[in-house]
């Protein structure tokens, strides 16, 4: 009986931990990335403000740094005619499908480095992740239809 209780306890402790796929993804995402391209799944001209911060033109070429051991990061906008500088955030990876390795992110801006979170967050889908490339997708509603914003990163 004791062995059965210990076995059940061990299984419950293991099941509460982060999955291996999430741990591997956190290892891959660690480091510096460049947001190279932002595209839309539908043709047209869109005046989008991404992450309630800046335009597509300002985000393209931005540098992103991820620190997965404390789920924080910073992105830096350097574009001309943009409000340049560092923006801090915290992120959470939520497993969607362990077989494909695809996840949803919850990215929440913070006021300063490691300071309090703002009351807004942005749900993004991790559509692809390799050692040197990453693809995010965000679905938004535009005039009653769904628009998918694709963001392509490369590792520095």
UniProtKB/TrEMBL annotation:
Protein name stated in the entry: Lipocalin family protein
Q: Which organism is it from?
A: Mariniflexile gromovii
């Amino acid at each position: 009986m004791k062995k059965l209780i210990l076995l059940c306890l061990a299984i419950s402790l293991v099941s509460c931990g982060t999955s291996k796929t999430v741990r591997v993804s956190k290892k891959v995402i660690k480091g510096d990335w460049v947001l190279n391209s932002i595209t839309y799944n539908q043709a047209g001209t869109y005046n989008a403000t991404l992450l309630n911060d800046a335009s597509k033109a300002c985000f393209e070429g931005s540098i992103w740094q991820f620190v997965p051991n404390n789920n924080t990061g910073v992105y830096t906008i350097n574009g001309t005619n943009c409000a340049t500088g560092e923006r801090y955030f915290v992120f959470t990876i939520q497993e969607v499908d362990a077989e494909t390795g695809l996840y949803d992110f919850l990215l929440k801006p913070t006021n300063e480095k490691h300071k309090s979170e703002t009351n807004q967050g942005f749900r993004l889908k991790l559509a692809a992740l390799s050692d040197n490339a990453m693809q995010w997708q965000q679905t938004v509603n535009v005039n009653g239809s769904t628009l998918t914003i694709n963001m392509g990163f490369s590792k520095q």
